Amino acid sequence: MDDDTLPVGMRELMTRAIDEAAQRGSGVVEGEHILLALLAEPRSAAARTAAEGGLDHDGLLDALRAERVHSLQAAGITAIDASRLQSTPRARQRPTWGASIRTLMTEARTANRGPRHRMTEQDMFVAILRTELGTVPRALDLAGIDRAALITRLSQA
């Protein structure tokens, strides 16, 4: 992904998403890391709107943990405490972009606004919420977050 083609606010968001992935020991940046980065910035309109809709950074972390446990149980595996799953820290290697990131970027860039629209954090948030498959939608569903209502709130903000 070419960071130079992104608006400044989006470059900052993607840098925060890389940090979120690295903090969690992930070698790949996925939608959940972007969403965590969005929610970690309490001054942003998107994070405030999400908090009003019942979703904040800590709540998403809890939802992601619950999704992991639920998915493991569905496979017949007992979840191990996350602290026991810590790996050796990576040697300052920057996480790479996950397969879903390009799709999210395209969706955020063009959804409801046309290809000339300058993508915003809010656009990225809505693109992530519209995703039907993957960890984030499962986690939000388990947490009882009404994604459609949150999309409406974000679109009106």
Task: Walk me through the topology.
Layout: H1 8-23, E1 28-29, H2 31-39, H3 45-52, H4 57-74, E2 96-97, H5 99-110, H6 121-130, H7 135-142, H8 147-156
Parallel strand pairs: 1-2
Helix pairs in contact: 1-2, 2-4, 2-6, 4-7, 5-6, 6-8
Domain Clp R: 1-70
Keywords: Repeat
Protein name: Clp R domain-containing protein
Describe the protein in words.
There is one protein chain. This protein is mainly α. It has helices at 8-23, 31-39, 45-52, 57-74, 99-110, 121-130, 135-142, 147-156, and strands spanning 28-29, 96-97. Strands 1-2 form a two-stranded parallel ribbon. Helix 6 (121-130) packs antiparallel against helix 8 (147-156).
Give the tags:
Double Clp-N motif; two-stranded parallel sheet
Task: Provide the CATH top-level class.
Answer: Mainly Alpha
CATH superfamily, by name, is Clp, N-terminal domain
Integer count of domains: 1
Q: What is the number of E strands?
A: 2
Strand content: under 5%
- Rg calculated over all Cα atoms: 16 Å
What is the strand arrangement across the widest sheet? 1-2
Largest sheet: 2 strands, parallel
- Helical residues, percent: 55-70%
Question: What is shown here, in short?
Answer:
With 157 residues, the chain is mainly alpha-helical. Helix content is 58%, strand content 3%. It has a two-stranded parallel sheet.
